[in-house]
């Protein structure tokens, strides 16, 4: 989505920051503080988000392990990353922080487990 | 009957932090955590999204990661815990009746920390007309089904309520390939955190319909759609604004209520506004030796605050179990919420423990450029300017030694809000 307005998320004030083009240079309006301005610049040029989802676990005490990217990845790559993670199955045990996918979609971010999953105990059923 | 110094009921973030802090402060380290679910960590286990720990750990964690840091310490210290164990009764004498696969258990505690968390309000709580087909969930229930059990709960969804859980589930459903048709909010504003509106709705182009309500749910076996309508300033439907939205799933995210069934049985006095026990600055309830913290006390928006509050409760619970005589002649003065302030926690100050503490409160509406004052005996002791105050964000004020030293203990402490 190419928009000329973003809502700042750094504090409850929630300023609407507008980007205006004037003779090839950009100007920003509506920001309430310096931090907000810096945030908006990044948000306009290359918005990034941490992606979190779950991945299937084989022979684990639970069937899905929650995962996240260890760095924010470009917003437009989120759905592509999700579809990769949907097709993956890992084998228990999984340690918290262990890498599930390295450098996903060449974003430089690894997908890591955010929960420890032990092996399934046969007495569980 | 087994005996413990401190028994913590609930193994979520509040329970874990309270148990750890009790443990640290006890000589005889007999602490027990009782958890209903199979794992420690509570609802954090299903909150797989980031945004936890920014204040407490100064880094951004997911729910399971935040919980893990405390679970790890519980393990390292070999604090005793029971999972898949349900407490069915606590008595004012601090006897606990619990049940699990092995049967019934009776436990005697010197002090108890209540940390049972909260419950979701359901469709019934907001009286939504229509049929009762499959496909209607509370947002947290859907979160558990998707994030832990791994079910696909539907294809097209409407979310009722724009609190944080509703917003986060809008994103989660979208990532799972479920189309979120709209988030319907009856108030003219969202009570969710700003960052969630941006990152969960705006990012995916999900419409947020403010001043709208779901007037009816349709469908015989499975949800087939909902009727929505605009509401006026009295929250009444405006005729001829009805619109049908086709969907097979409806999520309700319409508020949380502290889970106080056990507290009621123990005869604990509850606060009508928070829905949780009335506590003093030691987090002691009206029953001596029974303490409360976390969402069972009042619903928090950030887990970081739960942790801090639970640590205080855990510390005083340990103190009570070792020196109950310190709590023998409790005398309290009330802390009262007035104009613009919906509630304060704690609601009382214990004269035996006049030590700096954090006062947490929520306002009753949106305010711009307002002053929060703390007064006592007609004298203003503290003034804090706030550029923005919203009902969705819990506020905290540190009550310092300096303020405490100026108190007239024969009068209430009054917290109120003034416009500039």
From TrEMBL, chain A:
> Please, which domain of life does this record's source organism belong to?
Bacteria
Which PANTHER family does the record cross-reference, listed alphabetically?
DUF1667 DOMAIN-CONTAINING PROTEIN (PTHR39450:SF1), MOLYBDOPTERIN OXIDOREDUCTASE, 4FE-4S CLUSTER-BINDING SUBUNIT (PTHR39450)
Provide the protein name: DUF1667 domain-containing protein
């Amino acid at each position: 989505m190419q928009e000329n307005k973003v809502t700042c998320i750094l504090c409850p004030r929630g300023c609407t920051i507008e980007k205006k083009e004037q003779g090839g240079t950009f100007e920003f309006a509506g920001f309430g503080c310096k931090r907000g301005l810096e945030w908006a610049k990044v948000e306009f040029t290359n918005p990034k988000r941490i992606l979190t989802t779950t991945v299937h676990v084989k022979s684990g005490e639970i069937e899905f392990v929650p995962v996240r990217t260890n760095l924010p990845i470009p917003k437009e790559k989120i759905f592509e990353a999700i579809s990769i993670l949907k097709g993956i199955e890992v084998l228990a045990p999984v340690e918290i922080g262990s890498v599930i996918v390295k450098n996903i979609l060449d974003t430089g971010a690894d997908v890591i487990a955010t929960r420890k999953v032990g092996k399934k105990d046969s007495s569980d059923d | 009957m087994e005996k413990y110094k401190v028994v913590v009921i609930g193994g979520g973030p509040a329970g874990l932090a309270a148990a750890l802090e009790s443990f640290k402060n006890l000589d005889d380290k007999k602490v027990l955590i009782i958890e209903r679910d199979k794992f420690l960590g509570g609802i954090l286990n299903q909150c797989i999204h980031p945004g936890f720990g920014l204040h407490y750990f100064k880094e951004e964690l997911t729910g399971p990661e935040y919980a893990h840091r405390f679970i790890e310490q519980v393990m390292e210290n070999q604090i005793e815990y029971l999972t898949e164990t349900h407490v069915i009764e606590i008595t004012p004498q601090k006897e606990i009746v619990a049940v699990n696969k092995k049967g019934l258990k009776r436990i005697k505690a010197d002090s108890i920390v209540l940390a049972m968390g909260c419950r979701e309000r359901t469709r019934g709580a907001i009286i939504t007309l229509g049929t009762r087909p499959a496909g209607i969930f509370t947002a947290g229930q859907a979160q558990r089904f998707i994030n832990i059990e791994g079910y696909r709960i539907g294809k097209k969804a409407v979310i009722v309520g724009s609190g944080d859980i509703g917003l986060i589930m809008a994103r989660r459903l979208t990532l799972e390939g479920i189309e979120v048709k709209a988030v319907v909010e009856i108030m003219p504003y969202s009570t969710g955190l700003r960052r969630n509106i941006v990152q969960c709705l705006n990012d995916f182009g999900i419409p947020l319909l403010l001043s709208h309500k779901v007037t009816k749910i349709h469908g015989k076996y499975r949800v087939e759609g909902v009727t929505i309508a605009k509401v006026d300033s009295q929250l009444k439907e405006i005729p001829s604004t009805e619109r049908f939205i086709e969907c097979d799933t409806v999520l309700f995210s319409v508020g949380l209520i502290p889970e106080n069934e056990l507290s009621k049985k123990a005869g604990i006095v509850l606060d009508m506004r928070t829905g949780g026990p009335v506590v003093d600055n030691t987090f002691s309830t009206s029953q001596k030796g029974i303490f409360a913290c976390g969402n069972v006390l009042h619903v928090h928006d950030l887990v970081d605050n739960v942790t801090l509050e639970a640590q205080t409760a855990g510390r005083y619970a340990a103190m009570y179990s070792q020196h109950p005589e310190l709590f023998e002649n409790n005398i309290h003065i009330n802390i009262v919420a007035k104009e613009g302030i919906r509630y304060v926690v704690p609601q009382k100050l214990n004269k035996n423990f006049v030590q700096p503490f954090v006062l947490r409160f929520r306002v009753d509406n949106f305010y711009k450029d307002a002053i929060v004052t703390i007064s006592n005996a007609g004298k203003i002791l503290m003034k804090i300017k706030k550029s923005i105050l919203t009902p969705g964000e819990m506020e905290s004020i540190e009550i310092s030694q300096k303020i405490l030293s100026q108190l007239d203990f024969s009068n209430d402490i009054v917290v109120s809000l003034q416009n500039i």
